[in-house]
Write a structure and sequence with these properties.
The protein is of the alpha/beta class. Helix content is about 25%, strand content about 15%. The protein has a seven-stranded parallel beta sheet. A six-stranded parallel beta sheet has the order 1-3-6-9-11-13. Helix 1 runs antiparallel to helix 2 and helix 2 crosses helix 3. The longest helix is centred in the N-terminal third of the chain and has 23 residues. The radius of gyration is 30 Å and the shape is elongated. The protein starts with a helix and ends with a strand. The relative contact order is 0.06.
Length: about 290
Amino acid sequence: MSEKLTNYLNGVFASYDGVKSVTELKADLLSDLQEKYRELKAEGKDEETAFNMTIEGIGDIEETILEVANLSRSLERQVVTNFSASHLPLSDFAGVTAHKGQFNASALRGSNFAGADLTGSSFKSSDVSEANFDGANLTDCSLSTVALTDASFNKSILVRTNISVSGMEGTKFKGARLTDVTISKTDLRKTIFEGCIFDGVVFEYSDLSGQNFEGQTFIGVKFDKSAVNEVSFKGATLKNVSFKAYFSLTNKYYRSIATICFDGAVMDKLTYASLKGMGANLSNVTVR
């Protein structure tokens, strides 16, 4: 009869094989059932009656098993996605799903995250130079004080991504759409942007001097107290874009606005009026 109880539980727990905490629950429950069965037999119940009364006594165990399994799997995922303080250069993370992954203070130079879903992950104070994030989902990710030299974000999904105080020399954004992204206190002079759409992006306290944004699209973008000397928006589209000056006792910021190239750009009336008031050269701009 002990074998019959074991077979019964195997059927109940079949969908959760391999989940450690559920396996432990199953072992404890089997021990309790066997004891209950022996007590009923000692009371004079026949085998069939004792068996039926034993399994009826556990009630609806399915909901409890499901809760234990879900909790266990959640904890296992947390362990799997915590790579903080790890030495993992040239690692292969291509195509993985690692929501809220922790990659803080880690050596990840040259690692491959292409096509990975890294939603909500953190890479604070890590070296991800030369890493490949092409096509990766970086929604709600934090990249603060990160080495991103020569990293690639081609066609990446960047939504509410926060990049700050990071090294971005040679970092490539090609064909990417940046939505509600904040880039702050970062030198972007040698960062490569090509064929990008900037939607609700905020550049604050960053150096964009000499940056080439030719032919790209800017919607609701804020250049907040950032250096914009000789930036090129040639052939670009600007809608509801604003430039906010940093504090200065001179007209240095307004002189830098005059160095921006807007030849062939298309912009809305409000953006045009704002830039005109700041002294920008808008002689070859189309207003729509």
